[in-house]
């Protein structure tokens, strides 16, 4: 009787976590200021990596540099120099994704897994053990299914957000199409189970990056970077 009760409690707890707690949608307070670039996801920052010559130095598969389009699924003509900020969403994180900047959606690109989606467990282990760089051995970053949107800001800068699937994910949700407009902090997508969300910010846009690897951030609230906003001349 006791064993049966424990099993029922475990099953009920799992169902609550998987279909209620996991899909929760808490309200978020978007910080004021057009120069504030917010996180696109809840989770741990795994890397803040410079992009130069359309390539990124990453410790994946013993490679020292990876093309930007391989990590983001951005087409070659969109790739620029800038900074790529990765956020790993744990099993307890809110999995709703939000726009880091305001702008028009100019691209929505889906890429299937190279073979089959790999587990993100290696990233969890690296975070728990403090093994840096955190992306070491994380093959999923270049092999798993991903969906990228690109936002063109009012100043003409292109910012991309890439949702990366975990092994157990059946689909990535991004309820936007080219031509849609998103305001800063607006919710637009969801990834089920553990996953990752990367934001690419071009150098011409950013004045300062405010986060570092290991920091926990919140979608729509945490300011991950500050933008170069032209100062209006005084009257």
CATH architecture: Distorted Sandwich
Order of helices and strands: HEEEEHEEEHHEEEEEEEEE
Strand content: 25-35%
Large-scale geometry: globular
**E-strand count:** 16
The largest beta-sheet arranges its strands as: 11-7-8-9-13-5-2-15
How much is the radius of gyration in Å?
18 Å
Fold-level CATH name: Glucose Permease (Domain IIA)
Low-confidence stretches: 231-235
Oligomer: single chain
Provide the helix percentage: 10-25%
Structural class: alpha+beta
Distance between the termini: 79 Å
Instruction: Please state the average pLDDT score.
Output: 84
Main beta-sheet annotation? 8 strands, antiparallel
CATH top level is Mainly Beta
Quickly count the domains. Answer: 1
Instruction: Give the count of helical stretches.
Output: 4
What can you see in these coordinates?
- This protein has 235 residues and is α+β, with helices and mostly antiparallel strands.
- It has one domain (28-227): Distorted Sandwich (Glucose Permease (Domain IIA)), CATH 2.70.70.
- Helices cover 16% and strands 34% of the residues.
- It contains four helices and 16 strands.
- The strands form four sheets. It has an eight-stranded antiparallel beta sheet with strand order 11-7-8-9-13-5-2-15. Strands 1-16-14 form a three-stranded antiparallel beta sheet, with no helix packed on it. Strands 6-12-10 form a three-stranded antiparallel beta sheet, with no helix packed on it.
- The model is unreliable at 231-235 (pLDDT under 50).
